[in-house]
Amino acid sequence: EIIKSDFPILDICIRGKPLVYLDNAATTQKPKRVIEATTNYYETQNANIRRGLHELSEFSSSLYDETRKKTQKFINAQSSNEIIFTKGCTEAINLVANSYGRINFKHGDEVLVSEMEHHSNIVPWQMICEQTGTKLTPIHITDDGEIDIEDFKNKLSEKTRLVALTHISNALGTINPVHELIELTRKTDAVVLIDGAQAVGHIPVDVQELDADFYAFSAHKMYGPTGVGVLYGKKHLLEQMPPYQGGGDMIETVSFEKTTYAPSPRRFEGGTPNIAGVIAFASAIDYLERIGIENIHAHETALTQKLHEILSEEKFTRIIGNPKLKSGIVSFVMEGVHPHDIGTILDTEGIAIRAGHHCCMPLMKRLNLSSTARVSFAIYNNENDITVFANAIHKVKEIFYP
Ligand code: PMP
What we know:
By secondary structure, the protein is α/β, with parallel strands linked by helices. It contains 14 helices and 17 strands. It has helices at residues 2-5, 32-45, 55-74, 89-104, 123-132, 149-155, 178-185, 207-210, 235-240, 275-291, 293-313, 339-348, 361-366, 383-400; strands at 13-14, 17-18, 20-21, 83-86, 110-114, 135-139, 160-166, 191-195, 214-218, 229-233, 251-254, 259-261, 317-319, 329-334, 351-352, 354-356, 372-376. The chain has a seven-stranded mixed β-sheet with strand order 4-10-9-8-7-5-6, with helices on both faces. The chain has a four-stranded antiparallel β-sheet with strand order 13-14-17-16, covered by helices on one side. A hairpin with a 4-residue loop joins strand 11 (251-254) and strand 12 (259-261). Helix 12 crosses helix 14 (383-400). The relative contact order is 0.16. The structure holds 4'-deoxy-4'-aminopyridoxal-5'-phosphate (PMP). Residues 25, 88-90, 118, 120-121, 166, 170, 195, 197-198, 218, 229, 359 line the site of 4'-deoxy-4'-aminopyridoxal-5'-phosphate.
């Protein structure tokens, strides 16, 4: 209840019922301190960064850089120069595809992605593969919703240039053994990008321990503002990568004859960034650290187990995926009921869930489904939310199985 009271939006009513927010994989709600940090920035700190010589600009620049250091420590990167701010996880992946991919992929090479990837970790690779004549190869998943490690081993070869894998599946909640998968990749020259959109803020992430070459995530899925994302990249890789976008702030010198570029991270942050968002993101990290990622993970795991117990006892209801390691995301279907109908009926009870393909059309195809209903937890959810949800599921059953 104390944590819930940190989130003003959780006091509102939807359709006359108290909001029960169970769509956290899409975006989490924001604690007061993050909202206040945004307001405070515009009220007392607003100036463009890295440009002015005036005090206000120096101040906002230093707050921006402090957030970079905080992010570095949060995921245990070696240097803050390995942290690039983007507008989201999607842009972070596109940056690697268009910069690293453009100079390193060639005809006959291969990029591996798993069948459970979000479109954000498929389409950017598909686009650059089309441009460079590289083959995009899917790694199969098992019926339980885990990456098929044997298939992965078989597909890894000297042709593999890059492997892109999600840390946690946004549709199934599977926690992939990314450390083990990265280790396997080390037998080749390929680099690995991990899509951490559903992992950071839910489980401990240490990019050095994982040995990830690139790691991408979004602030808005970890209690931070929208419009801010992070790309972590190993220094030696970022150093050889060309800029992704040209503009102000990413250069050293410009002339019509030749332009030279600033080192990372500035090389990849052309133009005025989301300064307010980045500065408020620091407050989200502080908040997560105060509660403790281990505590958050334990809490979300307990809620997931409880929900599994409830849904497994429901007739006509099937949980999708049965991985050994799972986060706070539960996808399910009900016989003869379209997931959109489940979502709509739950909405009349003030409950927000997600229903659809979850931007994972290839995964849905693999599972022979068109869509699922998905509950996803965050730190402010509690057993009462599950009770309200379970009662609403009974309403769905009353309507569809009278
Ligand atoms: N990857 C995964 C696993 C996701 O869940 C999402 C968001 N649903 C993304 C990438 C894209 O994140 P964003 O829209 O914040 O760029």
